[in-house]
Amino acid sequence: MSEVGAVQIPVYNRSNPALWFIMCESTFKLAVPKPITESVTKFNYVASHLPPEVASLVRDILMNPDATDPYTHLKTELINRSGESSQQEIRQLLSGEELGTRKPSELLRNMKCRAETLKVPETFMLELFLQRLPTTVQTILAAVADITLDKAAEISDRILEVTPVPMEIHAVNKNNSNFMEEKLLSEIEKLNARIDKLEFSRSRSTYLQKLLPDTLKSIGI
């Protein structure tokens, strides 16, 4: 009984179950008169401190604990299932967010605001953000290496600003999507050609400026 009275399990951390288990294990090591090492004992401590809605995620494990290592089994499954539950919660929270007439960067700011308390991983937020962009924009962003969430929003803003044809915000048929993509890529190629031509003109001008003094000198001017 002295061992039970000496252990104080921290409040469950919904946003980071893995961290909560680390804190619990530190508590087990500090128990008196000796550290708690038995898997069954740790299982009982953890199970008795789970909030009802969290316990429901691992109801089957609580009802039928693993015979070999119940604590580790509970820990592993709870972390995995909590992650899946969190993703579903995030998807549900952001299900009503659509691009509409907003800039992609505005959409992203609103998504971040709504999901702020859930501490959404950037990779998952990027996935959800890209799903809400027009197909043509998604295709172009897919070719960008090591893209970040903020960079994706910035590039999307620019793409929609220079797109020469109206882009459907909602679902579009495949033919129309391909047509818009070809038009956009064509405009990008034209822009690159103009830049190359401008750079060539500048290089030629610089060369002539360097050549002119030598030419004048050679003819005695």
Could you please describe the fold and organization of this structure?
InterPro entries: DUF7041. With 221 residues, this protein is mostly helical. It has three domains: 17-91, no CATH class; 96-162; 175-207. It has eleven helices and no strands. It is elongated, with a radius of gyration of 30 Å. The termini are far apart.
Report the portion of residues in β strands.
under 5%
Which sequence of SSEs, written as H and E, runs from N to C? Answer: HHHHHHHHHHH
User: Poorly predicted ranges (pLDDT <50, ≥5 residues)?
Assistant: 164-172
The description of the largest β-sheet is: none
Helix amount: 55-70%
What's the count of strands?
A: 0
What is the overall silhouette? elongated
Global structural class: mainly alpha
| CA-based gyration radius | 30 Å
Report the mean per-residue pLDDT as an integer: 76
Alpha carbon gap, first and last residue: 108 Å
Overall number of structural domains: 3
Tally of contiguous helical segments: 11
Short description:
With 221 residues, this protein is mainly α. 67% of the residues lie in helices and 0% in strands.
Describe this protein with a few key phrases.
221 residues; 3 domains; single chain; mainly alpha
Q: What layout of secondary structure does this protein have?
A:
Layout: H1 2-6, H2 17-29, H3 39-48, H4 52-55, H5 59-63, H6 70-93, H7 104-114, H8 122-131, H9 135-142, H10 149-162, H11 174-218
Helix pairs in contact: 3-6, 9-11
Protein name: DUF7041 domain-containing protein
Pfam families: DUF7041
Domain DUF7041: 9-94
